[in-house]
Specification:
By secondary structure, the chain is α+β, with helices and mostly antiparallel strands. It has one domain: Jelly Rolls. The chain contains seven helices and 13 strands. A four-stranded antiparallel beta sheet has the order 2-9-4-7. A four-stranded antiparallel beta sheet has the order 3-8-5-6. Strands 10-12-11 form a three-stranded antiparallel beta sheet. Strand 11 and strand 12 form a beta hairpin. The longest helix is centred in the middle third of the chain and has 26 residues. The chain starts with about 30 loop residues before the first strand and ends with a strand. One of its GO terms (cellular component) is cytosol. One of its GO terms (molecular function) is DNA-binding transcription factor activity.
Length: about 260
């Protein structure tokens, strides 16, 4: 069970989960983590290591660097003046943060687990993108997936029921970890989330998330125990997320494996 401490509706014919919300490329995805082989400053040890709960930067902080998550889980969030928090996305290895043009960060970044970030000056980062077409493609792929997730998150917050929101988020995380080859298998993964993280990502109360997880477990859809998720029925989980059915080969959910840059 997730710790209780703080801490895609599309009905068009032929739609498949993964085609929009979790887009898979016909060629293997590229990986921004390989920037370390391309930038001399990365080899000089410019890294940030965070413990769980520590922040890379806070909302409204002035940031002059671009960061690539090399290891661990983190999340982007916005705080309201009254203390309420909205988690807008979870960051996984290979994700890039700090790309926004605004001088002050529109969101904060907090580590869910121990994290390692590679740090780059904006000048060197964008110069590399200009020199390396493969790097530019990797960045475009990453941003396209982030945009698709943002659209799905808006749909969840605006239209999906509480149970559908929970199912959709879990399916999204399974899909993303499979794409990175970080899941134990295509239906099982370590999930370092507390109830409060899920609630803050979905606009729900902790108690509502707990009830949804319990009902999904009782219905034989999934088991979530000691921060480990096991999907028992992938097709049913997809239906619970209000998505089209998963195809038999499950390629719609398990996207292409990551291909690393050549040095």
């Amino acid at each position: 069970m997730i710790s209780t401490s703080s801490q895609f509706s599309n009905r068009s014919q032929g739609y498949r989960p993964g085609a929009a919300a979790f887009p898979a490329s016909p060629t293997p995805a590229l990986d921004c983590r390989d920037l370390e082989t391309q930038l001399p400053e990365a080899k000089a040890g410019q890294r940030r290591e965070l413990k769980p709960g520590e922040s890379l930067f806070l909302q409204e902080d002035r940031i002059d660097s671009v960061y690539v998550l090399l290891e661990g889980w983190a999340f982007r969030y916005q705080d309201l003046k009254d203390g309420r928090r909205q988690i807008v996305d979870f960051a996984l290895p290979g994700d890039v943060v700090g790309l926004n043009e605004a001088a002050n960060a529109p969101y904060g970044i907090e580590a869910l687990t121990g994290c390692v970030f590679a740090c780059y000056s904006r000048k060197s980062f964008f110069a590399l993108v200009g020199r390396q077409p493969a790097m530019g493609l990797a960045l475009v792929q990453m941003l396209a997936r982030a945009e698709a997730r943002a659209i799905e998150h808006l749909t969840s917050l605006g239209r999906r029921t509480a149970r559908e929101r929970v199912a959709h988020l879990l399916l999204e995380l399974v899909t993303r970890l499979n794409r990175l080859n970080l899941a134990a298998d295509s239906k099982s993964l370590d999930l370092p989330l507390m109830l409060s993280h899920v609630a803050d990502a979905l606009g729900l109360a902790n108690e509502t998330v707990c009830r949804c997880l319990s009902s999904l477990r009782k219905d034989g859809v999934l088991v979530l125990r000691e921060r480990r998720l096991k999907v028992l029925d992938l097709r049913r989980l997809t239906e619970e997320a209000n998505l089209s059915e998963v195809e038999d080969d499950e390629t719609a959910v398990t996207a292409a494996p990551v291909r690393r840059f050549a040095a």
